[in-house]
Amino acid sequence: MRATALLQQLRERGVLRVAASYAVIAWLLLQIADVALDPWDVPAWVRQAPLIVAVLGFPVALAVAWFLELGDRGVSVDIAGEGVVRPSVHGLRRYADIVLISLLAAIVGFFVIRDAGWLGDRPVRSGIVAAASLAVLPFANVSGREEDRYLSEGLSDELRDQLSRMQSLAVSARSSSIAFAGQAADAVAIAEKLTVAALLEGTVRRDGDRIRVSVQLVNGKDGKLLWSERYDRARADLLRVQDEIARAVVAAVVPKFAKSGGSAGPLPTDDPIAYDLYLLGRQHERDAERAADDVSGEQLMQQACGLYESAIAANPEFAHAHARLAYCLLLQGQPYDRPEQIAAIDAVVLPQIERALQLDPRNADAWVTKGVLLRWTRRPGGGEAYRRAVELDPRNAAALTTLAVYEGSTGRYDRVLEYAERARRIDPMSFPANLIPVYAASRLGQREAALANARRLREQFADDPSAGDILCLAHQLVGEHDLALGCAISRLRETPDQEGAPAELHLLLGETWETLGDRGRALEHYDRAAAADGIFGRIGVPGMMAARYAALRLRSHPAALKRLAVDARSRRLGPRDWPIADTLARTGMRADALAIYRASGVADIFRTESNEKADAMPGLAQMIALLQLAGERGEAERLLAPLLEFSETSLRHGARHYMSFILHAQALSLAGRNDESLRQLEAAIDAPGSPFPPALLETDPVFDDLKSDPRFGAQIDRLRARQADLRRRLPETLRNHGPE
To answer: Could you tell me which residues come within 8 angstroms of residue 367 by beta carbon, excluding any fewer than 6 positions away?
Structure first.
């Protein structure tokens, strides 16, 4: 009855009629706004503003209809009681809103029917790409001289950068575009792979002081030519050629924007000599990344820095050259562990970053370099620099990837996944953008997503053996340890001589056998991994060292452990060395472990935005436990607050992997909240990624106060039961994959 009375009042006060009118009129105005804004290269928030205004205005319109009435004498406040007849208007005005609503409803109906395709296919103008997206493929060097390659690759890269600065145009990232360099795949297949509507390709020939550029724009849907042009100019006119190509592409791909007077982003410089030196520097930088060895890579990077300096000498206001020089110099000065090293790199890199941003405050590359500098030197502010880069250039895949990595150091794994997936959509052929979602999804407890991401990575990079290894790791991360074991055995059989792969695969096998409770087989693979040479990025230390520490922990030989402690205390340590202290703490050498924790700087890493921060948090927990046992309560309390904050943040942001629950259990136990800690341990045993070796809890000094509690023992029993279930599945898995 009450609902019926309310409906009657809404009808009497004209609220329902106003609501219907508002909805129809607002929808039509939004369509008009969308069409009006489409030609303009405006920020996303401008396009969203009409919708926000319409939503906010809806309750205001309803309130006005409730409190005010329109009659023959004009607008008046509605003070009549329920059931009393309201004033009304007469004549044509009485039916004006009905006529208006009917007319607008008819218009809306027409558009809905048309968009649904019931009136037949909408005509599309020939030669215009429907979706404003494209990929700039590497231009071919047809000069026959290797030294001219910088012109062809440089022109295509700079065109890509210039076009990508347009918010109305989605441009595929460089790493995805160059994946198809020299391939015979047709345009339709490439466009489908890169999810773009058009492809820009071309050739560059240098003949003395002249260049000849042939370029064509191809429709990715049917492979037909949309536009083509040839340029025969003096070499000094390369900048003008680039600008003409960019304008022609914009006219073909975003015709409404071009007709409104818009154009592609500005050229980086107007000095042809500076531009030529800059392109040559970019080529040396790319070659350094692909160099076969570190020595030649360093030489090429030094040459790149010199070329950028020459470009700046030719044109001191060349912002892009300052930004690239900053990054080039930053790569030259590693490592950055000591204050004097940090001061030295600041002295040469910061002036270049500041000059680039002074000349061009919207230079995303300069902001990314600033973020890298701050993070590599373990100082705050790197995350803000990355966010600024993404804000200025939302389609900068490199900036999005670095921001995703940064968010991982804060425990916000939901944001890691968000930024990495955005980067992958922009740059589908980027290995990091495809790899990060595997880790992020597993941390969030998203089993199917983690495995799907790993399978996509394997398919996307079928020629990269490490992509197949990641799928084995994904099975381990989601708790399918038997499948991880079978996968790693198969991979090792397929690639026995692959450089680096044996270390990673043997380490994975060692961890998996330890999880299954087979100490002998775990040691066998740890020893084989320790003897190999490969980098295993999951734990931030060389794979051979991680395997060595694991083998020492399992064997617990006092003499070997003492040698490890003496060696560690005799050299300069960093945050990546915390596994040494972890090994010693878990084997009873707690005084040595505490000294090494202190020397490695784990106590200070929580103040930084370093990549090692999240990985080092378990080490920080053990250090706090050792401080408490040593009676150093003050320092322990100072370190406990950030540990608690990090573990709470990670759970609040969706972390559901067993490692996140264990970390929170450690923090709660150190805070004396044993009941809550036990509940977190219970959650860890049931969480994705479990089971795990019971020794992970039994040897942890953090849980010393809990080990006598029967509830702790009950959780260990539950963990062993899950181990047993896993072992029962193992024979079938090994039958499918074959014995080791």
So the answer is: 357, 385, 386, 388, 389, 392, 399
